């Protein structure tokens, strides 16, 4: 993950996260960045040490496919969303492929 200064557009840090990242949110009050990594089924928690220095604080196991997320600003809880994945012919777009609909949504 690249961390960018929002005022200058300059890259200030790079942090290793999991595979299949989809969502990233920043909790400014706590100085934490969260990356949901749907392929790995992890949530990477990154701490802002200084405005130009970030480090991975934790990697939390989540449901595989948990990608989109939101932070509750009142409680600072991270709420990742996901879907159940079956053992059938599910595609990465969600749902089973059929002859008439090869890429279901």
Present the secondary structure layout.
Elements: E1 2-4, E2 11-14, E3 21-27, E4 32-37, E5 42-50, E6 53-61, E7 69-71, E8 78-80
Antiparallel strand pairs: 1-2, 3-4, 4-5, 5-6, 7-8
What does the model show?
With 105 residues, the chain is an all-beta fold. The chain has one domain (2-80). It is built from no helices and eight strands. It has strands at residues 2-4, 11-14, 21-27, 32-37, 42-50, 53-61, 69-71, 78-80. A hairpin with a 4-residue loop joins β4 (32-37) and β5. Residues 87-94 have low confidence and may be disordered.
Distance between the termini: 27 Å
The arrangement of helices and strands along the chain is: EEEEEEEE
Number of domains: 1
Strand order of the largest sheet: 3-4-5-6
Separate helix tally: 0
**Rounded mean pLDDT score:** 80
Overall 3D shape: globular
CA-atom Rg in angstroms: 16 Å
Main structural class: mainly beta
- Beta-strand proportion: 35-45%
Low-pLDDT segments: 87-94
Number of DSSP E strands: 8
Largest sheet: 4 strands, antiparallel
Fraction of residues in helix: under 10%
Kindly summarize this structure in a few lines:
The chain has strands spanning 2-4, 11-14, 21-27, 32-37, 42-50, 53-61, 69-71, 78-80. The chain is mostly beta strands.
Key features of this structure:
105 residues, mainly beta, four-stranded antiparallel beta sheet, 8 strands, globular
């Amino acid at each position: 993950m690249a961390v960018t200064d929002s005022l200058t557009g300059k890259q200030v840090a790079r942090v290793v996260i999991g595979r299949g990242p989809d969502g990233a949110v920043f909790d400014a009050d706590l100085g934490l960045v969260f990356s949901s990594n749907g392929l790995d089924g992890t949530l990477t928690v990154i701490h802002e040490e200084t405005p130009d220095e970030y480090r991975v604080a934790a990697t939390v196991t989540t449901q595989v496919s948990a990608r989109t997320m939101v932070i509750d600003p009142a409680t600072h809880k991270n709420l990742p969303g996901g879907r159940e994945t079956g053992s059938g012919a599910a595609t990465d777009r969600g749902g089973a492929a059929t002859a008439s609909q090869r890429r279901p949504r």
